[in-house]
């Protein structure tokens, strides 16, 4: 019998147990990174029917938030199932993912709304494709600087949380699904993502001041939209398989 059930702590039915949450999180995050890769391709070749790079970018911006929250729920569920109480490490992992989700909602949606537009239009403006959005961004220099700062902060939190995941992976006990996570791949992907974010911001800041796009932009975009997603994609394929295998093993043990 599942130890969490034995202790009377049934998981929320709509979320399932920790393995089900890991599976759902991996599926959403795999889809998110795949969307970014396809969006890059569509940006080069043009829209395919009603499918455009902009649409896929918006889907990716939305899907990864519930995906990461499900990862937090997976760690919370695992702790309850074991009935051993919270460790500081797993508590920090859970809240790290929750913090990332909150900061991401703020810089992606709340701040652009406060400026008077949306995130995609702001970036198009900074890249010279929308003069009106560029003027709005320049007029809201302080808010744009705050947006960039929170973007970098979110990437840093994501990396720090995955470093804790890697530490937890090293210390996982036999039988825990955490022992099978692609933790080092995730850390590497999150690190590339943070570095790429810094490079993109460094290139865009001069534009706000009326200058030209910085030379670090291309490297940042390649890292953010191609290198990091490919790394994370392979990791989420692995964790998706892990979650499904863990669910199957639990069903077999109950049967």
UniProtKB/TrEMBL annotation:
Segments traversing the membrane = 22-45, 57-78, 90-109, 148-169, 181-205, 225-243
Keyword Transmembrane in record: yes
Q: Is Cell inner membrane among this UniProt entry's keywords?
A: no
Classify the source by domain of life: Bacteria
Write out the entry's keywords from A to Z: Membrane, Transmembrane, Transmembrane helix
Its recorded name reads: DUF4386 family protein
């Amino acid at each position: 019998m599942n130890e969490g059930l034995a202790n009377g702590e049934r998981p929320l039915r709509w979320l399932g147990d920790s393995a089900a949450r890991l599976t759902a999180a991996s599926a959403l995050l795999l889809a998110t990174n795949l969307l970014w890769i396809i969006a890059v391709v569509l940006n080069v070749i043009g829209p395919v029917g009603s499918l455009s790079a902009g649409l896929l970018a918006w889907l990716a911006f939305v899907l990864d938030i519930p995906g990461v929250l499900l990862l937090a729920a997976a760690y919370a569920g695992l702790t309850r199932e074991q009935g051993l109480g919270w460790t500081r490490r797993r508590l920090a992992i859970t809240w790290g993912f929750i913090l990332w989700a909150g900061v991401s909602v703020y810089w992606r949606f709340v701040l652009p709304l406060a400026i008077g537009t949306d995130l995609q239009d702001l970036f198009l403006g900074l890249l010279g494709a929308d003069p009106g959005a560029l003027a709005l961004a320049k007029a809201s220099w302080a808010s744009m600087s705050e947006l960039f700062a929170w973007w970098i902060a979110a990437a840093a939190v994501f990396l720090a949380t995955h470093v804790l995941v890697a530490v937890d992976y090293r210390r996982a006990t036999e039988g825990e699904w955490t022992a099978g996570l692609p933790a080092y791949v995730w850390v590497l992907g999150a690190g590339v993502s943070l570095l790429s974010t810094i490079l993109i911001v460094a290139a865009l800041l001069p534009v706000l001041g009326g200058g030209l796009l910085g030379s670090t932009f291309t490297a940042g975009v390649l890292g953010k939209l191609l290198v990091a997603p490919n790394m994370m994609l392979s990791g989420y394929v692995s964790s998706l398989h892990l979650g499904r295998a863990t669910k199957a093993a639990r069903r077999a043990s109950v049967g």
